Amino acid sequence: MLDLFPNLQYLSFGEGGWGMNMLRGLVSTLQIALGAYALGLTIGLAGALGKIHGGPITKLLLEIYTTLIRAVPELVLILLIYYAGTAALNSFLEWMGQKPVDISGLVAGILVLGFVMGAYSTEVIRGAMRAIPRGQMEAAQAYGMSRFTLLKRITIPAMIPFALPGLSNLWLIVMKDTALLAVVGFTELAMTTRQAAGLTRSYLMFYVAAACLYLLLTLVSNIIFRRLEKRSRRGQPGLA
Amino acid sequence: MQHKFKSAALAASLIMVSGLSLAEIRLGTDTAPYPPFSQINAAGELVGWEIEIGNALCEIMKEECVWTPIAWDGIIPALVAKKIDAIVGSMSITEERMKTISFSDKYYNTPAAFVAPKTSDIDGSPESVKGKILGVQVSTTHQNYTEATYADMADSIKTYQAFDEHNQDLIAGRIDAVVGDSLAMAPFLESAEGQAFEIKTTLSNEEIFGAGAGAGIRKEDNELREKFNAAIKKIRDNGTYAEISKKYFNFDIYGE
Amino acid sequence: MRWDWIPSYWPDFVDGLIITLQLLSMSIIIGMSFAIPIGLVQVTGPRWLGRIAQGFCTVVRGTPLLIQLWLLYYGIGSLFPSVPWIRESWMWPYLRDAFPYALLAFSISVAAYEGEVMRGAFKSVPKGELEAARSFGMSRFTILRRIWLPRAFQNVLPTLAGEFVLTLKATPLAATITVFDVYGVGTMVRQETYRIYEPLLFIAGIYIVLTGIIVFFFRWLENRVPRAV
C156 vs C26, C27, C119, C149, C217, CA distance in Å? Predict the structure, then answer.
């Protein structure tokens, strides 16, 4: 008879168990995912505005950004941005007369994934903004709202119900994409799992455990996003 | 709500960026486990012979050091791109690598081992691997040696990102033999699963395996290299090296 | 930037490209042939079968493909040798190789993601059309073959194009279990030439071209299919 998990004690939280370590991995996965998602949304909002209201050059550059990012495998992008991106940032800082910064671990992961997610969320948010009935915007303009007030009071709140399904999907993607950072050597859940599996030779058990943790994150996220969607659809939604 | 966590995350990342100073030396090591030299233990700490040696060197150099785990196949690019300042990760000093980076003096030297099942009649000679599948870790001298020596005879040579992964495939019978460092093989051969395997032969070839493992340093960082050399000499002389090694090995791994 | 390494690695890239394309096309064919029933049972029932299909989609879509790959290859794959008869059987040469594990993982992935897409596609076909077909006296299978399936596909062709691009972009993960695809060749070049950026840019270019081919193929396909009214 096959004993699938002969070494369950390796998962424990006590002495010699990898439980705590896996939880730490889970926390850094969440940190990277949240940071990258926030950065991605910021880029996405700016990108969508640029694509709708920008001049021809802005539009062209944004088109190149979203097209290229969405055509190249994330793994390749992560490697490229990890090496080239920080080098570019430092030469930019040098040019500004600032001291170079050392970007490693968490922040690099956030920057890399955030930059990739920005391309996807640009498209999602642009689509959502397009879906806002024109009349609402025109009414606000007629009220004499400034562009910023218009964005804050009308565009963003009105766009959210349209964007939420796409954005919740992006959140699930960014959470799973953090695992790719393991290939570059970042210490997050997938890497911690790989280390534990390699040292204890309990590959099946640890990968099943990791899969369960990711699944748990997904299921919890699904519940939260379902609530958010419901909420954003109540009458005229404000920013919660 | 989104606004709140956006700004919180942004603030957090700014703190992290500004919180890191450049005064310290960043030592790069393989993220994947490489016992007994370096590994993350169950408590999440980086431990092993090489970690202790690295810390001892930093103490002598009076430098603040931080360990930066990096995927092995990207460790030289990481050094060149200034993500780390020195590779202290059992990297052999070879002519090939010297074209891109420079090295300190060696701090240990052990032979490579050819490992196969005890029942196998592969003895490590090129003739004996005819039609067999060999496994090696990518970007290692072992890979170079295997490709130079066995490529013509072997069915194929599979490359793995991490040391433990080719051992796992050896257990799984997906490869017939593995070439890797003899000391790194030891914990595997002592484990329950490793009982069925043995070192068929040790391999030596100065040209490919180089003259031992040294700290990999950027070509232009002459000052740092000199500091490493002096510190290595110092820990050899003052007994620190022997003291640390005693905990892991029962012989002097420094080599000749 | 130096590109003089390209000629000497050209044959390797061609081999890698073939592996990438094999993995992509085979996993799409196998995956889609499961995605259609997975989508269908969630709409038609029986309910318990629909539940299973739904659960399958949730689990696969809720975990990273990388973990699934490692689980299959290093986890489940290394159990086989402890079962002696497997080692002696005709399956062993396949179980030994890494490609079948990658193919399995990617097919499962396509089945789950596209199963979800197909569920929406089947649902989106207006009930009236199916009822009209039934009143014509068509059998259930004929309705599926002649009306439901073609109409469903018609609706989701653009979505599928995007989904297959995502599958293409996931194929480099197979390199982490020793499948030597285009990405694998690229990393080999990186290690052997010590060039940091050029090999990555080169393979990025290859993937951009492949993405372009998929996008244009589907656009051509969409134009050939009569538009839904």
Answer: 20, 19, 10, 11, 15
The arithmetic mean of pLDDT across residues C38-61, rounded, is 93
Tokens of B13: 């990342």
What's chain A's Rg over C-alpha atoms? 21
- What's the CA gap between A26 and B70, in Å, rounded? 19
Residue type, B208: I
Give the 3-state secondary structure of B176-214. CEEEEEHHHHHHHHHCCHHHHEEEEEEECCHHHHCCCEE
Cα separation, A214 vs C70, in Å, equals 14
| B4 at interface of C, judged by CB pairs closer than 8 A | no
Cis bond before residue B36 (omega within 30° of 0): yes
- Neighbouring-strand partners of residue B136: B159
Question: Contact B116/B177 with Cβ under 8 angstroms?
Answer: yes
Question: A215 CB near a chain C CB, below 8 Å?
Answer: yes
CB contact under 8 A, B33 and A24: no
Q: Give the position of tokens 């010590």.
A: C194
Query: How far is Cα C205 from Cα B73, in angstroms, rounded to an integer?
Result: 21
Q: Find the radius of gyration of the CA atoms of chain B.
A: 20
As a whole number of angstroms, the distance between CA A233 and CA A226 comes to: 11
- Going by pLDDT thresholds of 50, 70 and 90, the confidence category of residue A104 is low
Write the DSSP assignment of C34-93 as a string of letters. HHHHHHHHHHH--HHHHHHHHHHHHHHHTS-HHHHHHIIIIIITTTGGGSHHHHHSTTHH
* Residue whose tokens read 């991490």: B162
Structure ipTM:
0.89
pTM of the model: 0.89
Token duo for residue C142: 């004929």
- B49 touches B187 (CB < 8 A): no
CA dihedral A116, A120, A123, A124 (to 10 degrees): -140
Contact list, C85 vs chain B (CB under 8 Å): none
